[in-house]
Amino acid sequence: MSTSQRRSARVSGRVARDQAEAVIVDQYTRLVLLAYLTLPHTLSRHRRVLVAHALVQRSLPGFRIARADHRVPGQRRSAPVPALTRTRASVVHAALAHDRRPRGWPGFLPSPRALRPMLPVVWGLKLFPRAGGGEEIALGQALSEVSAPARAAFVLLQLEGLSRSEVIELLTAADVPEPEQALIAARGLEATAGGATETLLRSREFDACSVQTRPTDLLRRRRRFRLAWLTAGIAALCCAVLATTVGLSPSDEPTRTIDVQPAIDAAQLVHTPRDSWADTSRVDFTAWPARGSRVGDTGLVTRALATWTKPPSGTRVSVAKATSDEPPPGNTQLLYAGEVDGEAVVLFHDGRRVVRYVEPPSPLDPASLDITRSDEADVTTAASLVVSRKGGKVRYLTAPWIAEAQTRDLLTPNSPGRPLDVSDEGVTDAVPELPGKGSCDSLPVLQLRSSSKIVEKHAFLVADLGGLTPVHLSYTPLPGTGAPPRQPREATSTAALLSWARTACRLPEMRHSGVRAVNQWDFAEQDLPERGGDAVWSCTRAFTWRGPGDILVQFRTSKESATAPAKLVGQARSTASCSRFGQHIVASTPWTAGSGQHYLLAAGSREVTGIDVTGEVKASGKDKSLAVKAPADPDVTVRARMKDGETLDEVGSRR
């Protein structure tokens, strides 16, 4: 065999090292992105950045991507493997295998691959990608909730442009047991990203090659030199406290007692490190550190746990809809313990619920216990908690990633927010509660801004609707001509504030209903007859923690005042309408022109191609809106025709 033949045989089924190096250098950013998004989200962002770079660099020396019975996707037994295909498969295999443990490997130890030293190594700095916007954060949260094979399949489909069969073959080669299930989960992620999937994935939120640095371990390094001195000081302090405690008289001891053994001890509570929120992909209540002047008060925390376990007679207990009141589980986390408005307050989180215990200063006054759901909270719905509610005023405990807090009135959209003082513990000054149903003179809400360590220029609104968790307010603008469907965005723009000013008076009706978020969707715009100006149709959807959502369809015209309440023209309960699972809607309402002539108006969302009216009025149009002369309050049936040939019934019922 000649030298050239031996070289050809050696390269067949493999990739020449110089070709692999050229591919890695040329496609380095794409390969690192693929590895970064596939790696386990349990790793910190710093660790994922370094491991992603290491896996791509380690793909050069012939890393085996599969067992002997698997082939590189697209490989023929006698044909050379394209360098990019081989390198990409190697990176995917290594990223999926990073967290796998051999049979019998101790569960408390990281996988052997995670323990293996790899270059690059960074000392004294933490690396993390630059923050993106709210849509990028939402996609990152969705990615963290699916399996690693699903994340890999999602990136391979959306960025690498592989076909479904190529993705299944590549995942099979990477020892994924059910690649079809991973592909189904990846398809589900497309609904979260919408039409901007590729743009979001290429944003700086996921770019592990364009990173920020922070010297977060300076104090830790300094503490190591002082560890011995600190240990001695703590021991001396404990002795002093013990001596003081022994000297207390019985009259100095607290008189509030508990008769129930709590389900867990105070010592078992989870305490999140104070700075972990800035270095995690899961920005929710699990990233909250324990704060407050009485975090170390074991007696107070124990009484709170005992009350949660079995509330004593006379305790004021409030449990939100569809929320369990079962005792605290072993993974319960302490969020806060301190004094607020003269009362002791303790806040817990157990992964599914937030619990607030309030203890009055006098042991003769009953304590109170509030329990509400908090599963699937995110950077906005976990941004604050109601810590105190007294005399028509409310104080909030803000998340550690909140850099700025303001208050604003939804009924004055042109007025700027007013700064709100926040204590070192994260407790805000008292602000007015949202008014009750039927009152609409002022609608105060919070405007919060996230730290740039989480996301840059990210401000959002939350409103108090009577629960422990303030409600996130968002906005979906009118559809643009030829543009892809709009995604909900923060309700801080001029258009969002103007829209909310006309519809916000319905918010008090949602008090104490377990609402997690409310989105205001302007789904259609219509020119009114007889030069009556223009009208905007909106759908206000309340998302609950328990799943179902209610909607209010409202109609407002440009001839009315900028804060005049919009007209309610339809409503529906426990419906998917006006959500990503119910993206189409049509509604109608009677309307009277300035001349006194009555009309029936109807309008539909972006996929509507025509509207049909039957009953006392018969009309048909080939547009997204329709206006026809009619009696004052006609009895009609309205249906829309869709692009796909289906028909759509009018939502809710008109008033």
The first-to-last residue Cα distance is 89 Å
Strand content: 25-35%
Q: Would you report the number of β strands?
A: 27
State the helix count: 15
Helicity level: 25-40%
Mean pLDDT: 83
The geometry reads as globular
Largest sheet: 10 strands, mixed
- Helix/strand/pairing category: alpha+beta
Give start-end ranges of low-pLDDT stretches: 1-13, 63-71, 74-80, 245-254
Spatial extent as radius of gyration: 30 Å
How would you describe what is shown here?
The protein has 655 residues and is an alpha+beta fold. Helices cover 25% and strands 25% of the residues. The protein has 15 helices and 27 strands. The strands form six sheets. Strands 10, 11, 13, 14, 15, 16, 17, 18, 19 and 20 form a ten-stranded mixed sheet that branches. The chain has a five-stranded mixed sheet with strand order 3-7-6-5-4, covered by helices on one side. The chain has a four-stranded antiparallel sheet with strand order 24-23-26-27, with no helix packed on it. Strand 6 and strand 7 form a beta hairpin. The radius of gyration is 30 Å and the shape is globular. Mean pLDDT is 83; it is low at 1-13, 63-71, 74-80 and 245-254.
